[in-house]
């Protein structure tokens, strides 16, 4: 079910069109990576969804409500983390999260437990009594996520949360984002660095000069761009016979064999995939694993930019 549905949403700043009639649909449980260079319009789009900017034109529904009419409801149920934010530096981390829990109307009796839960979720339980001003930038970004988590929003909007972080802090943040994704939370996360999003986005939207140029499920986009699927087949024993059989199957090429795992590239869709599997099994091959290889976002992006004029 769509949790966000935008139709031709647009934002002009004087003569500049920052977001140019963007239509986008995000289903519950999707993790959408919004990728694009600086100035593409990612922040402007997220700020509109976060109800901080009013669209010049177009319509959007978030969590089932109209973006401009029901913005108070949307603010309650959508967690927006802007690219820059300030926290009260002379509060402790525990006090800071309590403050946000109160502001979001978490029932008083539930606040203490909720704050503890969030502290351990963002892996900062040992910093509970540290002042915000003593936390590193990486920790502050995790506190940013924490202030959204205290009210358990239905949709997370994260604007370049990893920007300016050192490698270790990026990995720590990434672990938390992976947790969100694994728990089936709905997230839109922007970045101009692809590797930041690799591995946990189910969907991707590529934005450039105010427009979404390409969007969809990561694997679908790969198929669209390359016209093929990559499959890994593991068999019991010597793979030679299986390799020979795969080679005889139409529209398939074997791209590599590593011990008992055969990497295959094939043109087509799920139907052809099922056909190849049946072909092997009926041919007496003991198939241990047969899976479409998950697309690496970076390979995909290279392919897209490589094919660009
Ligand atoms: N309040 C504003 N007034 C005027 N122009 C603006 C305003 N906010 C953004 N812009 C312009 O809109 C365009 C899109 O900016 P936006 O910040 O949305 O891009 P972005 O993809 O988020 O880039 P970045 O990664 O640099 O944040 C840019 O040309 C920017 O200068």
UniProtKB/TrEMBL annotation:
SUPFAM superfamilies: P-loop containing nucleoside triphosphate hydrolases (SSF52540). Keywords: ATP-binding, Nucleotide-binding, Transport. GO terms for molecular function: ATP binding; ATP hydrolysis activity. InterPro entries: AAA+_ATPase, ABC_transporter-like_ATP-bd, P-loop_NTPase. PANTHER family: ABC TRANSPORTER, ABC TRANSPORTER, ATP-BINDING PROTEIN. Belongs to the ABC transporter superfamily. This is ABC transporter ATP-binding protein. It comes from Anaerobaca lacustris.
């Amino acid at each position: 079910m769509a949790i966000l549905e935008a139709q031709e949403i647009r934002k002009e700043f004087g003569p500049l069109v920052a977001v140019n009639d963007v239509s986008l649909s995000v289903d519950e449980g999707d993790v959408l990576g919004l990728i694009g260079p600086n100035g593409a319009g990612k922040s402007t789009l997220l700020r509109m969804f976060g109800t901080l900017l009013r669209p010049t034109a177009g319509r959007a529904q978030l969590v089932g409500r109209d973006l401009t009419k029901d913005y108070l409801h949307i603010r309650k149920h959508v967690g927006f983390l802007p690219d820059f934010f300030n926290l009260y530096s002379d509060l402790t981390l525990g006090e800071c999260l309590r403050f946000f829990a109160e502001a979001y109307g978490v029932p008083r009796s539930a606040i203490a437990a909720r704050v503890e839960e969030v502290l351990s979720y963002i892996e900062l339980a040992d910093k509970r009594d540290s002042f915000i001003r003593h936390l590193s930038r990486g920790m502050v970004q995790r506190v940013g996520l924490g202030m959204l988590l205290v009210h358990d929003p239905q949709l997370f909007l994260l604007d370049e949360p990893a920007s300016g972080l050192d490698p270790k802090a990026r990995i720590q943040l990434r672990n938390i984002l992976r947790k969100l994704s694994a728990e089936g939370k709905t997230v839109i996360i922007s970045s101009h660095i692809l590797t930041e999003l690799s591995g946990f986005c189910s969907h991707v939207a590529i934005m450039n000069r105010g427009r979404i140029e390409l969007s969809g499920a990561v694997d679908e986009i790969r198929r669209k761009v390359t016209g093929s699927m990559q499959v890994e087949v593991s068999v019991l024993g010597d793979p030679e016979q299986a390799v020979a059989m795969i080679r005889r199957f139409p529209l398939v090429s074997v791209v590599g064999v590593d011990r008992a795992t055969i990497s295959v590239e094939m043109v087509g869709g799920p139907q052809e995939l099922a056909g190849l599997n049946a072909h092997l099994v009926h041919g007496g091959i003991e198939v241990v694993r047969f899976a479409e290889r998950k697309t690496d976002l970076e390979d995909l992006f290279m392919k897209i930019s490589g094919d660009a004029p």
